[in-house]
Design goal:
By secondary structure, this protein is an alpha/beta fold. The chain has seven helices and five strands, in the order αβαβαβαβαβαα. The chain has a single domain, classed as Metal-dependent hydrolases (TIM Barrel, Alpha-Beta Barrel). The model has no long low-confidence stretch (mean pLDDT 95).
Length: 184
């Protein structure tokens, strides 16, 4: 991690016209805590919290789990919020109204995962969320450079969900993004 941070700093020095943020994806554990301790998380500009295991919880337990993660002061973005994989895995049972309300309270952006196998957050939930002041972060879930092309799908779904440029973290300039990342 230290090496990665040094490389980012060096690259920032070589390309001063580009702002490079330090980010990490942290797994939401079964109890709602994040899998990295605060002393690690505080080294990053942003933390993407996401679920990758224990998806068979009750609706109440899953909702409580995600809400606890949203209350973590280091959580900046909630990724693939329902865990769905289109035509492969149903979304986990969760009260998305309660999750989105908590994201608003804690100033956490919610990812629209642009991978065509996910397209998660469902577009039907976006309009109400952004109308109340919620922020959508479109993420390609890219595991290679080719995966960046999936951003096109994310933009299309965001438009379908009435996400305005003002309600999309991706459309902001570096200064505004940095301000968003600084929750306090």
């Amino acid at each position: 991690m230290a090496l990665q941070h040094r490389e980012i700093s060096a690259l920032g020095g070589e390309l001063p016209e580009i702002t490079i943020f330090r980010g990490i994806e942290s797994d939401i554990l079964a109890d709602g805590s994040l899998d990295y301790p605060p002393e690690i998380l505080r080294r990053f500009d942003f933390v993407i919290a996401s679920i990758h295991s224990y998806m068979e919880m009750s609706r109440q337990a899953m909702t409580k789990r995600i809400i606890k993660a949203l209350r973590n002061p280091f959580t900046t973005i909630l990724a693939h919020p329902t865990g769905r994989l289109l035509l492969a895995r149903e979304p986990y049972e969760v009260d998305m109204d309660a999750v989105l309300e908590e994201a608003l309270k804690n100033r956490v952006a919610v990812e629209l995962n642009a991978n065509p196998m996910r397209l998660d957050l469902d577009w039907r939930l976006m309009d109400s969320f952004v109308t109340q002041g919620g922020i959508i972060a479109i993420g390609p879930d890219a595991h290679s450079v080719d995966g960046l092309d999936d951003m096109t799908y994310g933009v299309m779904i965001a438009r379908k969900g009435f996400v305005t440029p003002q309600a999309c973290l991706n459309t902001r300039d570096a200064r505004d993004v940095k301000e968003w990342f600084c929750k306090t």
